[in-house]
Amino acid sequence: MKTFRLNVIPGDGIGVDVIREGRRVLDRIAEVSGGISFQYHELPWSCEYYLKHGKMMPADGMAILRDCDAILLGAVGFPGVPDHISLRQLLLPIRVEFDQYVNMRPVKMLPGLNSPLKNETMDFVCIRENSEGEYCGKGEWKNHGQADEMVMQHSIFTRKGTERILRYAFEYAKKNGKNHLLSATKSNALNYSMVFWDQIYDEVRQDYPDMTSAKMHVDALAGYFIMHPDRLQVVVASNLFGDILTDLGSAMLGSIGISPSGNINPARKYPSMFEPIHGSAPDIAGKGIANPMGTFWAISMMLEHLDCKEEADQIMTAMQHVLREGKAVTQDIGGKASTTEMTDAILAVL
Amino acid sequence: MKTFRLNVIPGDGIGVDVIREGRRVLDRIAEVSGGISFQYHELPWSCEYYLKHGKMMPADGMAILRDCDAILLGAVGFPGVPDHISLRQLLLPIRVEFDQYVNMRPVKMLPGLNSPLKNETMDFVCIRENSEGEYCGKGEWKNHGQADEMVMQHSIFTRKGTERILRYAFEYAKKNGKNHLLSATKSNALNYSMVFWDQIYDEVRQDYPDMTSAKMHVDALAGYFIMHPDRLQVVVASNLFGDILTDLGSAMLGSIGISPSGNINPARKYPSMFEPIHGSAPDIAGKGIANPMGTFWAISMMLEHLDCKEEADQIMTAMQHVLREGKAVTQDIGGKASTTEMTDAILAVL
Ligand SMILES: CC(C)[C@H](C(=O)O)[C@@H](O)C(=O)O
Ligand SMILES: CC(C)[C@H](C(=O)O)[C@@H](O)C(=O)O
To answer: In this complex, do A155 and B152 lie within 8 Å of one another by their Cβ atoms?
Structure first.
C-alpha cells in the first residue's frame, strides 16, 4: 500500500467548491485501486485568511507546504484583497520557491464539449515557463500622483531559466512522439527578452534535428491557435505569453472550467502543484454550479506525475464518459447539473 | 479641389504588392469624386534599402515623412534583416516620433468572410496604446554567452501616456454610441505596470458614469474574445496586449489579410499612418496572391481621418459588394483571384 501525502489549498471562491469534489474523486480512486491511498493536509490559506492575519500564509508556510508528495490547489483571489497581493503572496511564490519551472497545460478536445471554433480537432500541449520572465515582480514606481508619474515593470530572462524550459519542451515532444514544436516570440518588438529567447531557442533546437520546429510571434500565434488548432502539437512560451495562450486554448474547448494546469518541478526535488486553470469566480462562488472538471483533470495529471498512470487514465475515462452522455454536466458546458451531481456521475463510473 | 499629399512606404514583401493596388483604388476615388486628388511621394525604405545603406531610412527620414497629410504603409520586415532591426528602425519609431499614440483596429465581420468561430457576430474596435509601455525598447543584456547570462526588458508606463489612451477610448465609445468598454489588464501578475494601468482606468472611468466598463485580465479576455465576440464593443489595451488581442481579432474574421490598423495622432499635429495589420509574408511575396483588402480598409480609415467620410464609405461598400459576390476574392478567403483581379473587381464597383 502506497500512501501519498497531499497538501491541499482550496483557496477562495469556487476553489473551495471544486476541491471538495476533487477529494471525493481521490477517495474513490483509493477505494477502487486497492494499492494507493491519500492523506490530506488541508491548508486554509486564502483571502479570508489574509483578512484575519494580514498575510496569505503563515511565516513557515513554505516549510509546511514542502513536506508532501504533491500540492492540490483550487483558486486564489477574492474581492476585498487586491489580486496582486493574493496572487503574489500565495500562488506565484509557490511556483518559484519549489522551482516548478514548467507549467504544463494540455488542450485536448473531449467528447461532448462544444468549442466556439468550427474546427474542433485539437490535441496539443502548451509548455509555459513558470518561474521568471515577465512575472519576476520587479519594477519601479516614480513620482506618485504627480503629472510625471511613471512606472517601470521589468522582465528578467536568465540563460538557465530560458534554456531549461525550451529543452524541456523539446524533450517532451520527443518522448511523446510529437514532431512539431512552436516557440512563441515577439522579438520584433521586445528587443532584449525575446531576441534572447529566440537565440537560446536556436541553440537548443540544434540538438533536435528530427523535430520540425519554428518560432512564431505571439500575436500571429494567437491567430494561428484559432485558425489551425489541428496543426498544433507542442507550444512553448514565456510566462506571460503562456498565460495568455493557454487561457485562449482553454476557451477553445468551450469553457474555461475544464482545463488543468500542472506546475512541475521536473527534478522532483520539491513537490509539484496541480490546479484547475480557472480562477476563483467570486460571482458563482458557493452556488454549487462550478464545473469541477478542471480539478479532476488536474488530479489526473497529478496522479500521472506520482507514477499512477492507470489511476490517472481511469479519471480521464470517467470524465469522457460523463461528458459524452451529457446528462450530468454543469451549466457552463450546456447542462443543468450541480457541481456535486457532476461528481456523483463521475464516481458512479469509477 | 483638395489635394492630399501622401507619403507612401510600400516596404517589404507583399507590402509592395498591396500598396500598388491601394494606389489604384485611391486614383479611382479621385476620379469619381471630382473634389479630391492625391499626390504620392513614394519612399523606398525597406529591408532592401537597409542592405544597401545600412539603415532603414535616411538620416533626415523623419523630416521627409512629416511633410504630408497622411502616411500609407505596406509592411516591413524581410529575411536577411533581423526583425528587431527593421521594425525598430522604421515602423516603431514613426509611431513614437509622430505621437501616433492611438492604434485603432476595427474587428467587424463583413459579408462573405468565413470566421473560424461558430458565432460570426462581431463588430467592435480595439484601441491600442501605441507609443510606450512594453514597446519602449529599453533593457539590459548581461554576461553575454556566460552561464549566468541574463537580459532585462523594461516596460515603461507614464501617467500621461496611460491616461490619454484610456480617455481616448472612453471618448471614442461615447461619440460612437457604444456603452460598453473593456480594459485589458494583468494586474494580478504585473504588479507595477498593470496595477498602475488599473488605477488610471479607475480614475478616468469616473468621468463616464453612463458607460458600462470593466477591466479583465488579458488571459481571460483572450478567451472572452472567442467565447463572446458579439458582446465586445470597445476594448482598450496596452501596446503589447493590444498587439496580441488585435491579431486574434483579425483571425476571428477568417484571414489575417483583411484587417486595417490606424496609427493616429489625435491632435493632428503630425501625420497619422495607416497600414494593413498583416506583415510582409515573405513566403508569398511577389506571387500576386496577397489579399489587398487590409490595405483598402486602411485607406478607408485614412480617408475618414482626412474628413472624406463619403469616399471612405464608398470603399467599404465596394469591398462588401465584392466579398458578398465571392467571385473575385483571393485564396486566403476561399477564392482564386489574384491581388490585381480582386482590385479590378473593386474598381469596377467604384
Ligand atoms: C492568477 C494568475 C496570477 C495566474 C497567472 O497569471 O499565472 C493565472 O492566470 C494562471 O494562469 O495560473
Ligand atoms: C511588426 C510588429 C513590430 C508590429 C507590432 O508588434 O506592433 C505588428 O505586429 C503590428 O501589430 O503592427
So the answer is: yes
